[in-house]
Amino acid sequence: MTKKNLHLSSLQLFLASLFLVFSMMSASAQEDLTTSDGEPAVPVEATTDAGTVGNATQGEALFKANCAACHKLYKRATGPALFQVSQRHDREWLYEWIKNSAALIASGDPEAVAIYNEYNQSNMNAFPQLSNSDIDDILAYTDTEPPVPTAAVAGVDEVAGGGASSETTNNIVLGVLALVLIILIVVLFAVNATLKRFAAANGIQTEFEEDKPARTPIWKAFVQNQFLILVTAIFLLLASAYFVYGAFMSVGVDQGYAPVQPIHYSHRIHAGVSQIECKYCHSSARESKHSGIPSLNVCMNCHKSIAEVSDDTYAEGMEEYGVDYNKEIQKLYAATGWSEAEQAYTGEEEPVRWVRIHNLPDLAYFNHAQHVTAGNIDCQTCHGPVEEMEIMYQYSPLTMGWCINCHRETNVDLDNGYYEEIHKELSEKRGGRQLTIADLGGLECGKCHY
Ligand code: HEC
Ligand code: HEC
Ligand code: HEC
Ligand code: HEC
Ligand code: HEC
Ligand code: HEC
Q1: Signal peptide: which range, if any (predicted)?
Q2: Nearest ligand 3 atom to alpha carbon 352
């Protein structure tokens, strides 16, 4: 009797748990359905004249070709910012205005006259060639929400609901899996107990009970085996020595150091995409010990007229790096006291304090001109792929071993006019064999140490 009951109860447990899992799964599926099926019907209605009419991609092309000269999306230019302009005016009115704004103003339309006066009676071009559906496309583009910065995504998305729903489904799936595991364990225990009882009731001896006293636990066996202990001890000692050595050797080595700078300045954009030469900004690298960081005047040579990055660059910054590039340029203006509206310096300066990245200890002497001009070494050999760095970081370890290795391995550039005489003499002495920097004295302590 008891056996049967027990057997049944574990089966029942199993069935009940299966039922639970499936009902939870279908419940969560239903939740998903209601959010993706029921709700959107409402917002779509509400934004018909904003979101759904027209093709934003085609609109973007039309906007760039016809309107971008005078209009920006989020900022006043020659004309007003056009973001969500379709919500400020009637659609019919917009068709008329865009096709021929002068005619609409001449007709005395109060809305048109007001805008015209607000913008100092400057004229917008007429676009009779645009059809109503072209205009719908443009408006679909101007209604598109700006990309959200990735850095803030976690917070914003939860509010917006986009990331939240996928996160909750993830959580639900994880929860269900955990539940299934727990249930399996419980079921196994139940089955085990049932079987044991079944065996006992039938007078069968289970093996485990007999074996138990003879078995020693693994840890005891281990403690008794001296050879194993010796091997383990040696292994542990070696491993910790390895890590301690690594830790000591990395003291003072700042490879990969990439501090947050006061202005998010991208070498990728300037030295990479825009292909500005390193020496345009780091002009002293060729003649002197230091490369130096450019003064902000150098930046303003270009940035007096570049107040904003292109829309594509802007979107890339927001999506891939979580940076609002235009805000960073505003920081440059704040630092130099440049007033965009008046196109003049106000005199209120606040110098930018760049955080120094590469820094040898005072006991070592390193000279840029010697390497860049005399040695003819590319900046990238030591500083890495700078033109790909969104944020500058220390690429090389800058240890003594690093300097010495290169001096041992690098052959002297014998075509170099700078030391021509010396090189010639030396190479004759060595019977024409290639000279390394070490042969020049590049391993002498005094050359690098004061
Ligand atoms: C030559 C410059 C110029 C071009 C090109 C231009 N606009 Fe305009 N736009 C203006 C100006 C200036 C105003 C402000 C009213 C005025 O002074 O006429 C304006 C106003 C507007 C308005 C009213 C905005 C509001 O906030 O009320 C809309 C809509 C508009 N333009 C759409 C367009 C579209 C769409 C295009 C491209 C197909 C375009 N504009 C091309 C200069 C231009
Ligand atoms: C438009 C100006 C500009 C150009 C072009 C430029 N840089 Fe820079 N560079 C800067 C500024 C500003 C900083 C300081 C901010 C930073 O560290 O990101 C800097 C920092 C650096 C640093 C780190 C300095 C430190 O603190 O240790 C290195 C190395 C460097 N640049 C190398 C290069 C190389 C190599 C190139 C050419 C591929 C290059 N730069 C092109 C402006 C420029
Ligand atoms: C030779 C011209 C030139 C010089 C010099 C220059 N920039 Fe730029 N900068 C640009 C251009 C072009 C862009 C925008 C690229 C785009 O729209 O894709 C830009 C974009 C930027 C941005 C936004 C993207 C980013 O890097 O975060 C900042 C900030 C910026 N510059 C700061 C500086 C600073 C600081 C200096 C001086 C050290 C400087 N720029 C010197 C041409 C220049
Ligand atoms: C042989 C390796 C090597 C080469 C090549 C090299 N650098 Fe450096 N750079 C260094 C070292 C090492 C430091 C750290 C110097 C110090 O702390 O005194 C440094 C520091 C800098 C700094 C920080 C400011 C300073 O001068 O201390 C800038 C900026 C810089 N380098 C730019 C450049 C540019 C641009 C080039 C190419 C024209 C270049 N470097 C080529 C090794 C190199
Ligand atoms: C990428 C290879 C490279 C690295 C890394 C490098 N050097 Fe050099 N170094 C050279 C070359 C090439 C020359 C020879 C220039 C010439 O022809 O005079 C040189 C020359 C020198 C000299 C002059 C030697 C002499 O006899 O006149 C000194 C000092 C020096 N380097 C210091 C350093 C220090 C300090 C470091 C590390 C922080 C370093 N170098 C890292 C390649 C390198
Ligand atoms: C090619 C250049 C170069 C030569 C040659 C050179 N050193 Fe160095 N040395 C360095 C640099 C760079 C550092 C700093 C490295 C660091 O911070 O990790 C350094 C660090 C040291 C340090 C460690 C100081 C500390 O605080 O950690 C000692 C000691 C030292 N050097 C001794 C010597 C002696 C002795 C010789 C001659 C046999 C020599 N060096 C030759 C470049 C050189």
Answers
A1: 1-29
A2: 35
Query: Tokens 């021929």 label which residue?
Result: 100
Find the 379 Cα to ligand 4 centroid distance in Å: 7
What's the pLDDT tens digit per position in 306-325? 888 988 899 889 888 889 99
219 φ/ψ angles, rounded to the nearest 5 degrees = -65, -35
User: Domain 48-142 belongs to what topology?
Assistant: Cytochrome Bc1 Complex; Chain D, domain 2 (1.10.760)
Is any atom of ligand 2 closer than 6 Å to the C-beta of 285? no
Residue nearest to atom 34 of ligand 1 (CA): 67
For the segment 175-183, the average pLDDT, to the nearest whole number, is 91
The reported pLDDT for the residue numbered 233 is: 92
- Helices 325-336, 296-303: axis angle to 10 degrees equals 120
**Residue 414, SS3 per DSSP:** coil
Compute the distance between CA of residue 117 and CA of residue 119 in angstroms, rounded to an integer.
5
pLDDT in tens, 368-393: 988 888 888 889 999 999 999 999 99
Which protein residues are within 6 Å of ligand 1, measured from CB?
66-67, 69-71, 78-80, 82, 85, 88, 94, 97-98, 101, 115-116, 119, 122-125, 127, 138
Determine the pLDDT at residue 33: 38
From the CB of residue 77, how many other CB atoms can be counted at a distance below 10 Å?
14
For the CA of 447, the nearest ligand: 5
CA 290 – ligand 4 centroid, Å: 7
Say if residues 228 and 235 touch (Cβ distance below 8 Å).
no
The whole-number pLDDT of residue 148 equals 61
Beta bridge partners of 411: 436
Place of tokens 């269900």: 176
Say how far apart CA 293 and CA 385 lie, in whole Å.
Answer: 18
Q: pLDDT of 86-95, one tens digit each?
A: 888 999 999 9
Q: Which residues contact 375 (CB under 8 A, 6 or more apart)?
A: 410, 413, 416, 437
Give CA separation, 190 vs 1, 144, 183, 185, in Å.
Answer: 17, 59, 10, 9
Ligand 3 atom nearest 329 alpha carbon: 29
